[in-house]
Amino acid sequence: MKTPTCCKLNLNVVFQAFILGGYSIMFLFLLKTGKIRNFLHPRIIPYIAFTAIAFLLMMVFLFRSFKKREHKFKLAPFFLFTLPLILTFLVPSSPASASPLSFSSNKIVGISSIQRPSNGISSGSSSNSGGSQLKLKPNQKAVKVTSAFGASVTLIITDNTISMDDQNIVAWVNELNSHPGNYSGMKIEYTGYVYKSGNGFKCNQFVPSRNMMWCCAADIQLIGVLCQYDKAPELKENSWVHVTGKLSTSTYQNTKVPIIVNPTIKPASVPKTEYVYPY
Amino acid sequence: MSVKTQVDIITGFLGSGKTQFINRLIQTNVLDFEHAAILQCEFGQTEIAPNENIQITRHVGTLPPDHVFLLNLLQTSAPDRLIIESNGMNPTTALIQILESKELQNICMIHRIFFIADCNSFMVQYRNFGGLLNEQISQCDVVVKMNSSAVSADDLSAITAVLTSIIPSQDVYDIQVQQSVDDLEKKHVCIYPRKKRPVSEYVIFGFVLFVLLYLNLEFIRMLLPIGIHIPNLQNLITVFLSILFEAFPFILIGVFISSILQIFIPSRILESIFTKNKAIGFLTAMFAGVIFPVCDCATVPVAARFIKKGVPVPIAVTFLLSAPIVNPIVILSTLYAFPGYPSIAIYRVLTGLLTALLTGILFQVLPSTGKKQIVSAIEVSNCDCGMCSGNMPNQSAKFGKLEAVFKHAANEFFSVGSYLIMGALLSSFIQVYLPRDILTSLGGNAVLSLLSMMLAAFFLSICSTSDAFVARAFANTIPISAVMGFMVLGPMLDLKNLMLLTGNFKRNFVIQFVVTVSVIAFFVQYFITRLLFGWWS
Which residue among A41, A61, A90 closes a domain? Predict the structure, then answer.
């Protein structure tokens, strides 16, 4: 009839410590493997490091109350807390998939979302003169645009060809949409995934797209330049392609937009970072 | 002595009937099979009924008995059970700490703590000694209401409301004067002696956890290879985790600031800053966010702490609403999202501050409820950081305060974290499965599009630092007042921080708050923004 005196642990505290430790390991794991980039903009990573350390410290301080008197123990809330752990460790994580999220990407607004308000007052004081501080080769031209938060970025055109990569694609797409006329006739080349299901796309149109992340995977937007390609229906949605073509202008949803015509399409490998960042 | 003495503590205010309760325990013979002892630290009107099996000791003095006294008592008489009638004016924690000290924890263990409330006088006592009684109630395992038939049903439900607001999950029993504890026994067989938590329970529990983990894994593996569901399930998980991961650092900043406020800043300092002059108080609240650049997740715990620390509710509400809007990062991102239109960023701040101020003033004008009715007491009962529950002896070691900050932060994290997770889950569902067409199809109608954009802002829960970019995507197709509605309401109120609010505030207050903010935000956007942007459309 006497009560055994084992098991005097405070289950609430033990579970809290378990969760905190789990979260700490989870964040360290995501940081170590770089998978954190599937979810967050790199600029938030220092905050995540802080979070991992804070969780760890909280857990250490909780150890001291393991034997404190136990209030009623309720298990249900802890299942909720284990959900992120389960999803992180047991589901192979991938970037928010190339098929756009119905809400946070631009299924409707599509490529025109990149467009700035009509009169484009400060839409990058573009100066198509070669005379910048940069040493340009004779076959190069420079375009100065204003990038995120007012920083100015110089875009280079070599041999009349616009070559977009992870670093400059956001600035370029912005600039092309702001002044589609300025670049008509130039060559363009870049890599993106095939996006065909945009609102109002003709059957021979698609966008070689990239997913642009402002902050986290919940605010991804799709960017790219509309592309006219007769064999577009044969392309597989979401497959990665390298596009080389000539720029022209067209209208999409009553707005003047750049369009790539007569493209050469080659299959491409998935880029190292699937997202591109505006800043 | 082979077995530890089981200690029961009977708490409750002076004259609440602690001795009567003990007498009833004796009458029911539950103690007959044990060698029991009673320690009285308070002497009321009732005497303990003499019983040859039970040894009664008295402790005189206003302080709880110290180790030496208890050690002596436990070693000399070595009872199986010791019932301590606590002094009604002492916090329970003081006694618990002594019983759990190194010297005593090897020879005794706390079994049950009863809180005795006399229904006739409880409300009066609670009004006058709320802090002390909060502490006693939050520490107890079982609440016993004495003489519950002597008061009206309304009074009884008021008492129950107070009790359950402090300890939602505790066992509550009613006892009439004439009734015996037998009834108590019948209602709940395990009240006395204690139901043991057998080791097998832990084994079962561990097994269930394992099975669930395994099932989850299998479940997810099963779903992944199935064609049509892949992208959306994967997206759902990614979006859910990213909303959560993004919010975690800011929630932590929020709970740490809140804990530091709680432990290092005396209430009267905050109170004096915000209450001396109403106008200055409101102004400070409106612009405090500038020097405090955190997003909406972090402001909820801080605002709740402000209220608990005595800052007037209207001012705390103003702070809660304006901080995410005057955040410099938010202003910068708005400027960038609408290049060439700095007016949008300016009007976003202006209309946001106006909404915050009007809401604050409305809360000022409306008949106010006390802070007890607003801030949920969930944390009073949970927090064992040693700093929260009133006037307990300060056990601060070297790292005492630092430890308290971390423990307190952990507690707050767990009390709001589950709401955050639910909010992130809901809003990722909506992000992934709700088609966007619904919004844009509303097109030009000013009222409908404003309402739908406010709803969208609420459900999407996009962090205030990046919502301007999402808003811009709509700018071509819907009126600017609706876009502004999205950007102003979003940081103030969304699914994620509504969940956080319910974790920190009472339900009635949350409802009042949500309604007020939405209505004011709507009218500000509908009239003021259209006025400001008159030239626009």
Answer: A90
